[in-house]
Amino acid sequence: MTELSTAPVDVESLRASIRAEYAAVAEHPDQGFHFHTGARLAAILGYPEDWIAALPPTVIESMAGTGNPFALGDLRAGERVVDCGSGAGVDSILAARLVGPDGSVIGVDMTLEMLAKARRNAGLAGLRNVEFREGVLEALPVPDGWADVVISNGVLNLVPDKAVALAEIFRVLRPGGRIQLADIVLNRPVPAGSKADVSLWTGCIAGGLVEDELLSLVAGAGFRDIDVRRGVDVFAGAPQNSDAAEFGTVGAGIVGRRP
User: Fold this and answer.
1) Theoretical Cys-Cys bridge with 258: which of 48, 51, 95, 173, CB 3.0 to 4.6 Å?
2) 20-49 pLDDT, tens digit each
3) What is the pLDDT of residue 246?
């Protein structure tokens, strides 16, 4: 475990807080959060309008994230995809449509309410090539070398031990497989004392890293051809106030491949 990936908070308490936050997103999507949700978020992140319009309304309403993993590279027919932190299933469902009936998608999430909603949403979308499994990124319930692509959207920053999570992502990828992770980067690091503030973690801030730290962790997991692509401020104008601007928090895309 590296210093960068060690969270100075109780891991189970942190996970309980994150579960509670995203259970509310699943069950009360119109409540208003410190981040954007639903169709408004999809527009901010540049998802194609026709992709979103083709989804049943309940599929999109609980969407949460910080970027667009599909803007980081194409998914090809027949590929196997793991969606880490799949939430209500929007990215998993879109991925399942992109890889087609000969492809497969596994969504992994630790919030039971999100898993239940994602499974309902997949049924509404009429898809048979996507499934959702309970789990955390530090212990993915996926076999070694199964995936061609691992995607994620605004989840890595919520993980206490990022080094272990990235090692797990590396493990489930086949040689030559790739990552397309949408997350955040900070322009100013969060002070060590503030990293114990659970509200800053659930606010997608305390678990964020500056770009050099993020690159170091991804490279340390064994990935090559790594690139961090800065996006937009995804918190501005959200219904609840956020401290994100204080740290220069912006959406970012992280790409790389397993040698």
Assistant:
1) 173
2) 999 999 999 999 988 899 999 999 999 999
3) 79
* Sign of the four-CA dihedral 257, 147, 37, 56: positive
Q: Which tokens go with 231?
A: 């996006």
Query: What's the rounded mean pLDDT across residues 73-86?
Result: 98
The angle subtended at Cα 47 by Cα 216 and Cα 53, nearest 5°, is: 150
Q: What is the pLDDT of residue 202?
A: 66
Nearest to 59 by CA among 83, 91, 105: 91
88: tokens are: 């209500």
Higher-pLDDT residue of 241, 197: 241
Closest CA to 244 of 257, 235, 255, 231: 235
State the alpha helices, DSSP H only, in 55-197.
57-60, 90-99, 112-124, 162-172
Domains with residue ranges and CATH for the chain: 3-257 (3.40.50.150)
Q: Return d(Cα 177, Cα 167) in angstroms, integer.
A: 14
Query: Which residue type occupies 244?
Result: A
Q: Using the predicted structure, report yes or no on whether residue 81 has a pLDDT greater than 90.
A: yes
Distances from the Cα of 181 to the Cα of 50, 123, 229, 231, angstroms: 22, 25, 10, 12
- 174 backbone dihedrals φ, ψ, rounded to 5°: -75, 160
pLDDT at residue 4 tops 50:
no
What span, in angstroms and rounded, lies between the C-alpha atoms of 183 and 153?
A: 6
Alpha helices by DSSP H, the chain: 11-27, 38-44, 49-53, 57-60, 90-99, 112-124, 162-172, 198-202, 211-220
Short-list 144, 151, 152, CA closest to 170: 144
Q: With beta carbons less than 8 A apart as the criterion, state whether 255 and 179 touch.
A: yes
